[in-house]
Each structure stands twice: as structure tokens, then as C-alpha cells.
Amino acid sequence: MTQAGVDAVGSAPAPILEVRDLKVHFPVTKGAVLRRTIGHVKAVDGVSISIAKGEVLGLVGESGCGKTTVARAILKLIEPSAGRILFDSQDLWAMDKAKEKGWRRRVQAIFQDPYSSLNPRMSVRDIVGEPYIIHESRLDRVDIDKRVRRLLEMCGLPGRMAERYPHEMSGGQRQRVGIARALALNPDLIVCDEAVSALDVSIQAQVINLLQDLKDELDLTYLFIGHDLSVVKHLCDRVAVMYLGKIVEAGDSKVLFDEPLHPYTVALLEAIPIPDPDTEAARPHRVLAGEIPSPLNPPRGCVFHTRCPAAVPQCRVDVPRLEEARPEHWVACPVMAPGRADQQEPRLSAPPPAQTSLAGTSAGLIGR
Amino acid sequence: MADLAVHTPLDPDDDYRRPSHAQLWRRQMVRDKKALVGSIVLGALVLCAVFAYWIVPYDPNAMDFDMIVEPSWAHPLGTDDLGRDLLSRLIYGAQVSLFVGFSTVLISLVAGVALGVAAGFYGGWVDAIIMRYIDLQWAFPNFIIAVYLVAVFGTGLSNVIIAISLAFVDDFARIARGMVLTIREEQYVAAARTLGASNNRIMWRHILPNAMAPLIVQATVSVSYAILAEAGLSFLGLGVQASTPTWGLILAESRSFISRAWWLGVFPGFFIMITVLSINFLGDAMRDVLDVKEVKEPD
User: Fold this and answer.
1) How many other CB atoms are there within 10 angstroms of residue A358's CB atom?
2) Distance CA B163, CA B143 (A)
């Protein structure tokens, strides 16, 4: 499908999106008049990812692990506490107004909830046509209407649905409207934030196939955020697994799903039910103990050690770094993936810029 | 985007058609008898006010020696202490009362929504300044504020309108701000930002239309309160000039004759009551019709 994971260093194209050591901490305050900060929710705590053009990167993890916060930072909806986000080598927070408007055209989003991502007071024509009103003021009503109908048809909706309001459509139809809106400006990167999670399974399949067809036709790049691993496996070239604001494992989708190394990834994959009742009943179920800890007060050392079946005493002390356990496969677990001998030395510099891979958190904090 | 495959439509036979606004109103009237009654009564009152000049049986200010006569064929609602025909005065009074009611609500709606949306949308010190002022106003009953403002500006129709409008601003600002705080977290607002929409566009196209339902309800209630406030101000002698027939003033003047002439108090009170009631009925209906999420099938 794409070149992901097989690129030799140097031959790969520069990543379209690069996130370097992103941190998003929300202050928690107390007191109404004399407000003081009593702590920070570390929603995202040192995430580095990069996406090459034409590739689909999956970001998975359970609810509350910070994957949506990563998406919001990439869409410039919230400001990161530290770290940089580079789109086509341009820092998102160093753009002037005109540049930002140009960048907005190139990055679009498909949101999770098809019921709240469309303005209930706008017709489908106005919703899908809004990008043109904002960015292409030269287009008149007739042109916009033509384009809107075309987009709807591309997304598998009859053009006359442009007359409708969101509440007059089904969930799947609404999500198609959301996709049409995201495609309107012919973007390069689409952030799909749990884009199919709210849909029925049968509709999910249709929408996923649509996303895949559109990607091939329009040469798109996706950042696909989800918690349904079978969907992610089907769609993504590379996958990053998040737990409590950190990436614990990342790599080529096939490798990661076939031979997961991090205990959390193993547990996630084991939680996928097998669609055969007998096999499902017969296989061993190892359920992770406990709850996901509060990001307000994450555990010391490895954030996963409180629930980890493979934890050793050292896990309470050392914060594991993402290490390249095998080519194109990074794991932040010194127990299950001790790392190769040549990797034991701490890497203090950023990985080579041309690398299309998930850079380790060892890249260090790069201030904005 | 030249040669794109066109995917098959989901359901080509789907011939759903959205009911028009006129149809929705008709359905509402059939389903909701209160709305029907309210619109008929209010419509009749508005027509009376507009065509007052042609329909009054007497000049509302013409005095006569038939003072304080009971309702009769000559004077359907009786006459007052100066022999003026009460029905004619009440019909002319509808002009003032309805004008004050609707114009004050329009002014305070616009001002209050502007303040509330700005406070909710921008937050921070903008919010702090606006809301502390609103809190200050909230601490006093609206009517007391109106009385105070009339005392400052002086009496007269336009001053009464300004005073009542200002007194009602806080209600709208508060509701608008609350709605904005909820709506600005909606995904469609995030989607609009992702498209690069400006703050103005997000406020007026995305947030405000979705905040209108409770504001409309508040507006209809406020029309009633504004009519009552005008009546109250006139009753206290802080309203319009004494000879102008307004419902509140007629009611105020009637108290001297309450033991002798029941009709002088009952009829203006009745007019105020049916106006307020029918506006409230219509407000409920309007909220149902304007709520896109609540489109129901006909019974």
C-alpha cells in the first residue's frame, strides 16, 4: 500500500507531520478568588510521532489515554505545554495569520460523534459548503452547490441530500457528510478522531471502506485514532499504542499486531474477541488488573507498572524509553524488549530527520 | 479532483421531504390549541392597535357629562370619571402597551445577547467585567432598576422604553452566556475552527443559532413583563404623560373609584392578562417549531 516501514534512511520523503516530544498538561486549580494550581493533568506527556505522506498511522489506546488530546493539538485546537508540531517542516505555533489559513486548508478532521460534529441548524449544503465560503470567496452559490453535490456523491450520498438538516439523516449518513466536509478543500492530511467508533458495526465497515477508497483516489494521509484494534489493523500501515499520555509501543502494523512486545499491547490484543463462540470460550483470558491510574498523579517509573503482569521492582523506578527492539518496532519496556546491544547507550540526539519512523521520546524536550 | 469514482448512493429511493416552516406552524396549531388561541387573541389585539383610529367608537380623549356610567350599549365598557369611553381608551392603550412590550424586548435581547455571547466566547477579563456588571444588576429586581432609570432619565415614552430595556438586559446576557459556554465545546465548533472559520463566523453562524431556543422563551416571557412594567411605571406616575391612554395608567387611575366603578379596574386588567397569556402560549409554540431537533410527525 505504501512505503511505510521499509524505507531506508535517506530515501524516505520528509514526513508531512512531525510531532516532537509533545506535552499537554492541564492545570488543576482550586479556590475561586485566590486561584492556585494544585497539580497538572498530564493528558499527553512526551509523545513523538511522524507521518509520511500517503501513509495511515494508527493511534490506539483506551479511553482517557490522551489520544484525542494529541489530535486536538495537531489540529491547533489546544496549545501544547511543551514540544513542537511540524507540518511540512513548519512549526504550527510560529505561523502568521495568512500562513495559518493556508495550513488550515491542508489539514482537516473527521470527528467522533456524527451527532454533534454537524451544526444542527445548518443544512448539509451549508455544512459541506462552509470551507468554500471561508477559503474560496470567489465561488458563487451555484459553484458551491455543484461542488457540494459532487462531494456528497463521492462519499456515497445522493446529491439531493444537500437540502437536508443533520437530524434528518442516519448516523452513517451524517458521518459521510463529515467526511465530505473534510474533503472539500482537498487536504493532504486528515485526522480521523475515532471516526467510526460511534457507528454500528455494519456502517463502520462501509465508512472504513469509503475512507480507504478516498485515500487511494485522493492521495490522502490519515492519522487514524481509535480504540477498536481490528479496525486499526485493517486500515493502518503503522500503529502507535498510547497509555496514560505516553507511547508504549509503535511500529509497522503487521509486526505490532503479530508480535506485540509491550505487556499493555499484548493485553489489548488479547481483549479482542474472536468471532467464534467456542474458540472464544476456550482461549485463556487474562484481564488487566485494576483501573487506568489518574493522569493527575501518574505512577512513578513506568506508568504501566501498577497493572503490568511482567513488572519487576526496577519498573517502579526507571522511566522506560522507547527503544528500537527490532527494525521499525519501538517498545518502551526494558523487561519484555531489553533492546539491542547497540541501543543500550542512551540516544541523546534526535533521530535523523529523514527517518519516517516514530522517533523515541529520547529525542529530548525541544522547547518551543 | 477530476476523475473521481462516484460511489453508489446509499438509498436511491429515499424520497423524504422536510416539512416547510408553514407546515410546521400549521401542525403546531392543530396539535396545540393554546397556541391557536394565543395567536388569534394576540393577532386581534395587534389589529386593534394598528387600526385603532378607525375602529374606536369615540375619541379616547373626548370628555362627556356621562361620567362613570356602567357598561351599556352606548359605552360597551363604561366610561371613566371624565366621561371618556373606556373601550376606546383601551384600544388606543393597546398601541402603547404592545409597542413598549415588543420594542423593549427587542432592544434588551440584542444588547443582552451581544454582552452574553462576548462574555461566554472570549472568557477571561472580558467575561469578568461583563458578568460582574450583570451580577450587580441581578442583585436588584428588574422593576426597581426600571424605576431608578426613569427617575434618572425622566418620564416619557422613549425614556420608559430605554429604562425597561436596560433593566431586562441581564436576563438575556446571563442565558446567552450560559448557552455559549455549553455550545462552544460542541464538536461542530471544533470542526468550524479546523476549517479556519473566524471567531465572528463561529459566534454568529455556529453558536448563536443554537443558543436561540431558550432566548426566545425568555423573550416572550419578557414581553409580558415589559407590558406589566410599563403598566407599573404608569401606575406609579413614572410612565407616559397622564392624558396618554395606556393600560397601566388607566388601571392606576381606576383605584380612586374602585368601590364605585368596578369596570375601570377589571377591563384594563383583563386586557393585560389576555395579552400576557397569549404571548406566553405563542412563545411555547415558537420554541417547539424552531427547535430543529424536535420535528415530530403529525398526530
Assistant:
1) 26
2) 9
Q: Where are the beta strands (DSSP E) in A200-309?
A: 221-226, 238-243, 246-252
Output the pLDDT for position A200: 85
Q: Do A154 and B191 touch (CB under 8 A)?
A: no
Q: Radius of gyration over alpha carbons of chain A, in Å?
A: 21
Residue with cell 507521518: A51
> Cβ–Cβ of A121/B14 closer than 8 Å?
no
Q: Are B58 and B69 in contact (CB under 8 A)?
A: no
Closest CA to B156 of B75, B50, B230: B230
Q: What pLDDT was estimated at residue B293?
A: 58
| Cβ(A203)–Cβ(A168) below 8 Å | no
Using alpha carbons only, give the angle A127, A74, A56 rounded to the nearest 5 degrees.
Answer: 85
B196 and A101: CB-CB below 8 Å?
A: yes
Phi and psi for A56 in degrees, rounded to 5? -115, 115
Per the structure, the complete domain to which residue A328 belongs is given by 17-29+38-121+165-363
Here the ipTM equals: 0.80
Classify residue A307: in a domain, yes or no. Answer: yes
- Using pLDDT thresholds of 50, 70 and 90, give the confidence band for residue A339: low
Residue of A165, A176, A218 with shortest CB distance to B292:
A165
DSSP conformation class of A1: -
Residues A1-11 have a mean pLDDT of: 37
**B chain contacts of residue A100, beta-carbon cutoff 8 Å:** 196
| Count of CB pairs separated by less than 8 Å, A with B | 107
Residue A201, phi-psi category: left (phi > 0), alpha (psi -120 to 50), beta (remainder): alpha
pTM: 0.79
Please judge whether B293 and A77 are an interchain contact, meaning their C-beta atoms are less than 8 angstroms apart: no
Chain B residues contacting A via beta carbons under 8 Å: 1, 4-12, 14, 16, 18, 186-188, 190-198, 201, 205-206, 209-210, 292-293, 295
Q: From edge to edge, which strands make up the β-sheet containing A56-60?
A: A107-110, A189-193, A221-226, A56-60, A238-243, A246-252, A329-331, A323-326
- Tell me the pLDDT tens digit for each residue of B207-240: 998 888 889 888 988 887 888 888 888 878 888 8
Q: Which helix (H) or strand (E) holds A173?
A: helix A171-183
* Domain presence at residue A136: no
In this complex, the residue of B5, B18, B293 whose CB is nearest that of residue A217 is: B5
Per-residue pLDDT, averaged over A60-78, amounts to 89
Strand spans (E) along chain A: 17-30, 36-51, 56-60, 82-87, 90-91, 107-110, 189-193, 221-226, 238-243, 246-252, 323-326, 329-331
Looking at the structure of chain A, the number of domains it has is 1
Instruction: Count structural domains, chain B.
Output: 1
What per-residue confidence (pLDDT) applies to A190? Answer: 95
Please, are residues B85 and B79 in contact by the beta-carbon 8 Å criterion? yes
Q: Which domain holds residue B238?
A: 44-50+85-294
